[in-house]
Amino acid sequence: MNNIVRLPKNLNILKDPKAFKNYCLNPLGLTAQKTSNFPKEQKVEKFCNWEMVVHRGEKPLENNTVVLKCDPKLAKPEIKQYLTKLYGLELNKVNTVRYTGKLKNSILRKTFKTKDFKKVYAVLKTEVEPFYQKIETM
Q1: Gene3D superfamilies, alphabetically (predicted)?
Q2: Position 84 in a domain
């Protein structure tokens, strides 16, 4: 039960550590064939499953700005691409602000945290109706 590594007659392998490692792991130089009955992985195309909600606040905005709420993981280029491709909006600029969820108390005196969200200020090339910008007071 002696673990003896038989060294090759060619001593150049001893000088190169990678070659020596390969020789010790596979001394005869044989490679195993990869055989599998499993099908190859197919490329999966992801569909954007993002939620964007129009947020109408009381703060006055410019005529060409719309405020949206979205997932905090989305980046500015993704948001811009989402709005241009799905809704056909022409955007000048996209500004974002991250908000953390608030801690609230439930009826059973347990605390929970509301969801984090990102507020998106989309500056359009055309003007927007005031209905989409702020809540009208009655």
Answers
A1: 3.30.70.330
A2: yes
Stretch 115-124: mean pLDDT = 94
Is the pLDDT confidence value at 29 over 50? yes
How many independent structural domains does the chain possess?
Answer: 1
- Both tokens of 82, joined, read 């989402």
The reported pLDDT for the residue numbered 76 is: 94
CATH code, domain with 98: 3.30.70.330
The stretch 38-66 carries a mean pLDDT of 80
Q: Which token pair is 62? A: 């410019």
Determine, yes or no, domain membership for 30. no
| Tokens describing residue 4 | 């003896």
